[in-house]
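Dear colleagues,

As part of the handover before I leave the project, I'm documenting each prediction I ran so the next person doesn't have to rerun anything. This entry is a single chain, and its sequence is reproduced below.
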Amino acid sequence: MPAKPYSPKPSSPSAIDERRSAFTDADKEKTFKEQLIARIESTRFDPNNPPPVEPWIYKLADIECLHAGNLAVVVAALKSGKSSTMAAMMGGLIGDASRDYLGFTANPAVTGSILVFDTEQSRGDHFRLMSSVLRRAGLEQAPSRFASYSLLLESPADRLIAVCHMARKAAAEPGGLSAIFIDGVADLALDVNSLEEATATVDTLHKLATETRCVIIVALHLNPGSEKSRGHLGSQIERKAESVFNLRKEEDIITILCKPARRQEITAEKAPRFKWNHEEEMFLSTESKAASADDKRRAELIEIADEVFANRTELRWKELGEAIKSARGGVPSTIEKRIKDMKRLGVIRWAGKGLYVKGGGQ
């Protein structure tokens, strides 16, 4: 009897589905990896192909402290001026440059949209804070590019979704997006002490800032009685931020330190300071420690200059040193420092031909 021709046993539907699924998954994985490597390759350093310029958005004490595509965080103890500092930064983006923004200067070339999200205050307090932004900026109405919202009634997850969606929408419109303010960022997470949630939240915000080429400024409390910001969320956002604006309150004066910072730190001596002004009903800038010390030093040196120039209008360096020694005494190094400080503070000035005269710092 002739043998039957070979006929493979048909695969069961389940076996076919398994092979198809395996093939599809492998194909998807290959495509994913190829796309991933392509994205990474597009960022490869090439001195002849620099990335788009990241313009500065803010200066603090005349130092560039925040650039497009980056995060910044304002950290302080409870009731130490966080919201007012952020309000001043908002005002700087929409108001006249001559007004008081507590030491911040906004880049006048930045004209994109500004989004503000409040997660902490009641609707009434939110309204009052935004009204203070306009008053500080010298405006009666908010410009169309400025939009502020209360997210108090939304869940943490929905708040983050709303921020991302509205940011991408604003970035796609003519003029683009310049800045996002979130007061406070801890309310975007269920648990600020969850490392997983903190990492995911900060990663989302960092990518959003880079994607939309804006700056994202957030506010965060310090732990009570500590110099440490709240939880893993605080650690993560400080690590990723270009600048950390630390507010330090001593009696009625608040100092804005920029420390740590990715580019240049601003320490206590030169840091801007502000205090509450009852007449204006808002915080206003006051002298930095360095400026205050310079004023005191200038007054002291003007008194010395008045003595040494009493009968002369011009003095040579050697004559100036001898006159200062005669008037106040001191070792050569002390006398030299006095002369250098006189020059630096405008108490004396170079008149040419080796001569010094009293300057305009009087």
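The radius of gyration is 30 Å. The chain has two domains: 58-286, 292-358.

All the best with the project,
I.
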